[in-house]
Design goal:
Helix content: over 70%
Radius of gyration: 18 Å
Largest sheet: none
Oligomer: single chain
Number of helices: 3
């Protein structure tokens, strides 16, 4: 178990801080993406104005851009 933990946990304080920041960014994004997907499922088949679907698409596009930015940050060299 210790060997597995050592492979999964960041080794340095800087890596741990980076992992914590990434978690703080990813967690709310994941929640919002899930809520938008749930809302889209609930609206499916209903009599919903087109602008609601357009707004959901805009939100999903913004979330995709944010998610991509977080992924780029995660892969970038750490500046700590």
């Amino acid at each position: 178990m210790d060997e597995l933990r050592s492979r999964l946990e960041p080794a340095t304080p800087e890596q741990r801080a980076h992992a914590a920041r990434m978690h703080e960014l990813r967690s709310p994004l994941t929640v919002v993406v899930a809520r938008v997907q749930l809302l889209r499922r609930r609206l499916r088949g209903g009599d919903v104005p087109a602008r609601v679907h357009d707004d959901l698409e805009a939100i999903e596009a913004a979330l995709a851009r944010l998610t991509a930015a977080v992924e780029r940050l995660d892969r970038s060299p750490q500046s700590d």
